[in-house]
Amino acid sequence: MGLFSAKSKPKKTSALASSLQSEKIKSDIILSAIDDCVVYIDTSGVIYLFNPAASKLTGWLSGEAIGVDYRSVITLIDEKGVPIANDLHPFTVVLMQKTPIRSDNAIIKNRNGASISIDMTVSPLFDANEQLQGAVSVIRDVTEQRRAEKQRAEFISTASHEMRTPVAAIEGYLALALNDKVSKIDDKARSFLTKAHESTQHLGKLFQDLLTSAKAEDGRLTSHPIAVEMSEFVEKLTQDLKFVAEKKNLQLECTIGSPSGFTDASKVIKPLYYVQADPDRLREVITNLFDNAVKYTETGKITISLSGDDKVVQFRIRDTGPGIPIEDQPHLFQKFYRVDNSATRTIGGTGLGLFITKKIIELYSGRIWVESTPGLGSTFIINLPRITSERARQLQKEEDSRPAGSVYTQNTAPSNTGVIQ
Ligand code: ADP
Question: Going by C-beta distance under 8 Å and a sequence separation of 6 or more, which residues neighbour residue 414?
């Protein structure tokens, strides 16, 4: 018996060892065949697994990378080439938060100094007792994809720019044909030409929006940020917009600060809400939101309000329109997204307005979101970083000493302007 067991034990062990070995060979084959990089780190940040694709991307052989801290091997940089802070590295975030994250616009700097655009997913790994064991990352080289996207954006940009000019000419001639003082047409022709004129206007707006969104996407949106006092700015703009609302029998109300408790509005001291932004871009944003509020609201009121604390200036625009279904709300700011309902089927639009609006707000480190209950209207809210009156005066001085006619794009704005460059 003793002899039997003494003989059988090594047999069992060797069977287990060979089965493990064959499992390892299988997983090695799989990991080698995968085009995406697979990197596994333990909880102390040491690399444990590094497949051949990871070697190809980073320039580190797997024998060199294994046992090394991930920060030395997976070096991430921003668009300007500045290394990403340690606590923002996806691996660090996942080890801290223990939840998966995806970064689809990261850039890795490889061992040869080349910058490669990557899409990186990192997931935490737990053992059977829910104890964190490490994190695994799948990294994909998306350089080609980004290049194709850039080319596509350039094509859209050029095409819409070229097409805007003839469309503007057609629109102009149609307007002349519809002008009683210039031409005589019968009612039937007038009805056809009116329809053609409306469609041409829609086309012109589409080209303009396409051009703006292509520019916003690749950082060519012109922006000349200065100190803007929002109370005065919003009040003036509301005066201009009032007529548009009245045309549709909608009320327009504007509240600056929180005048609750005051009966005499003239005695309310209006706070100075300074932000740093391009006033033309801010006008575009507010007009866009206002146009939507008017467009989608049949009866009732549009309320514009401005408030803030020492860090943030908050702009809100509320309407009494149909509201937006909960399931559509997360997608509203995506390109070409339109809620599919009877209103959008009859009311014209490009689905680009809110996309552009969000891009502009992000240019000034702001945030935009919507709060809406279907049937009870919608509120679009914007938070912009507030600057002090002192900083506003300093910016004004700098502005006054700047040569006239300077034009900035997202990529050329001076670094002290606080815009994303
Ligand atoms: P569009 O040109 O279609 O208005 P936007 O990007 O401005 O494009 O808006 C996207 C979609 O969001 C619209 O098609 C509409 O369905 C919805 N939407 C935007 N603003 C409102 C609003 N104030 N009330 C109801 N729906 C709105």
Answer: 408
292 Cα: distance to centroid of ligand 1 (angstroms): 6
Alpha-carbon span 406 to 40, nearest angstrom: 50
User: Per-residue pLDDT tens for 144-177?
Assistant: 998 998 888 888 888 888 998 899 999 999 999 9
- Give residue 217 CA to ligand 1 midpoint distance, Å: 20
Task: Give the pLDDT band (50/70/90) at residue 303.
Answer: very high
Q: What predicted TM-score, i.e. pTM, was given to this entire model?
A: 0.69
Nearest to 141 by CA among 216, 46, 55: 55
Residue 349 Cβ inside 6 Å of ligand 1? The answer reads: yes
Q: Is the C-beta atom of 321 inside 6 A of ligand 1? A: yes
Task: Indicate if the pLDDT at residue 100 is higher than 70.
Answer: yes
The tally of CA atoms less than 13 A away on the side-chain side of residue 373 is: 1
